[in-house]
Amino acid sequence: MAGRAQPSGGPGPGLLPLLLLLLSAAAVIRTGDGQNLVTEDVTVVEGDVATISCRVKNSDDSVIQLLNPNRQTIYFRDFRPLKDSRFQLVNFSNSELRVSLTNVSVSDEGRYFCQLYTDPPQEIYTTITVLVPPRNLVIDIQKEVAVEGEEIELNCTAMASRPATTIRWFKGNKELTGKSEVEQWLDMYTVTSQLVLKVGREDDGVPVICLVDHPAVKDLQTQRYLEVMYKPQVRVSQNYPVQGLTREGEPLELTCAAFGKPQPTDMRWLRVDDEMPQHVVVSGSNLLISNLNKTDNGTYRCEASNAVGKSHADYMLFVYDTTATTEPAVHGTPVLLNASTEALPTMHLSNASLAFRPDSRAGEEGVIRSVDHAVVGGVVAVVVFAMLCLLIILGRYFARHKGTYFTHEAKGADDAADADTAIINAEGGQNNSEEKKEYFI
Q1: DSSP annotation of 347
Q2: Which strands sit side by side in the sheet containing 42-45, from one edge to the other?
Q3: How far apart are CA 388 and CA 383, in angstroms?
Q4: C-alpha–C-alpha distance, residues 393 and 59, integer Å
Q5: In sequence order, which residues have a C-beta less than 8 Å from that of residue 17 and are 6 or more positions away?
Q6: pLDDT tens digits, one per residue of 79-111
Q7: High-pLDDT (> 70) share of the chain, %
Q8: CA nearest 270: which of 298, 294, 310?
Q9: N or C: which end of the chain has fewer CB within 10 A?
Q10: Span of 173-182, 267-276, 390-399 with lowest mean pLDDT
C-alpha cells in the first residue's frame, strides 16, 4: 500500500529498529522505477496446503515482505517473524518470495499482502479461498418396503459445506429431478434435496443414487436400493400335446408358473363359468386330463395370490374329433393375462415353453382356411364356364343371321329388257306380282 514503509507484527524490539533503519535507507536510495509485483489468487480445500507466491519483475534487489489479513508480517525476506509453524519458506530470491501454508482452515481465508520496499513502496494482495466439502451425505427413505403403485419420499442431506452443494438424483442410469433447500449457519451451508418417486415392480432392487456436485470433491455419492412388493405374475403353458391338436381320447397336461414379491403362497386351478370335470387331476401347479372329450371344452384358469393381491391366467381348451388331421396353422399364441398381471421375467421361467400358450383351437382355423380356398376356387370355375357358354351361343346366333335380302326395286327386273322397263314393271305390276317375300339363306 502506498505510503506504508514498515512492516507490522515482526521481530522483537531489539532487531526491528535496525531492520527499519536499513529499509528506510534502501527506500531512499532505490527509485523502484519499472518494477512491479505479480501474484495469483489461491483456492484450496480445507486441510490441504496453500502456496502463496510474491514475484517481482525487473528486480533491483528491493526487499520483499508477506503479510497476513491482519497485516502481521509472515515473512520478511527469508526471516519469519510470525510464530506459526504452518508457514514454511518454499523459495526466496531477489525476484520471488514463495511461502506454503499447511493444514488450511476456514479461519485462514482472506487477503494476503505482498509488499516491495521501493520508493514509493509497492503492494499487491492475493486472496485465499477455502473450500469445505460436505459431510455426512445421507439418504433417508420414507418407507423401507413399498408396494407397487405407491409414492415414496426420499431425502438426501449434505451437511456443512462451503460453498453450498448441488444435489443430483439418479434411479439406475436415469437422472431424476428433486427439490432442494439450503440452510446457512455462519459460513457453512446445509443442503437437503427431496425426491418423490412412484414405484413399480420394475423398480425392485434398483439403486437410487444421491450425487453431490461440489468443487472440493469428486464422485461423492450415496445410494439406497428400492424394495418393492407386487402382485403375482401368472403364466400357463401346455406340456402335452406339444404344439399339436387336442383330440378326443388323448391326454392334456398344463403347468402354471407364478412369480411375485413375496413369492405366491396360494395357487389353484378352476374352470370359468362351469364346474371342474371330475376326471381332471390337479397336482400343485399342474393340471392333467388323461382322456379328453368334448365336454371338457371351456376356459381353465390358474389363480395365484400373495400378501399384495391376486392375479390369474386363462387357457381355452377346444377338443377335436379323433379324425382331425390338420395341424394348427399357429402352434402357440401369447398368454392373455388379466389386467393386474404382466409377463414373467425370463430368468424366472423354467423353460422357453412358458413364453407361449398353445391354443387347442388352432387346428380349426387351418380347416376353415382350407375350406375357404376350395369354395373360392369352385366359384371362379363356375364363372369361367358360364362366360365360355355365353360366347358360344352369341357366335352361333350371329352366324345364322348372315345372308341376302330383296327389296321392292328388285321386283320385275327378271323379265325386263332394260332398267326403265324393270322400274315400270315394279311399280305397276304389284297387283299381278306375288306377295313380297324375303329369302334367308
Answers
A1: G
A2: 42-45, 122-131, 110-117, 63-67, 73-76
A3: 9
A4: 128
A5: none
A6: 999 999 999 999 999 899 999 999 999 999 999
A7: 72
A8: 298
A9: C
A10: 390-399
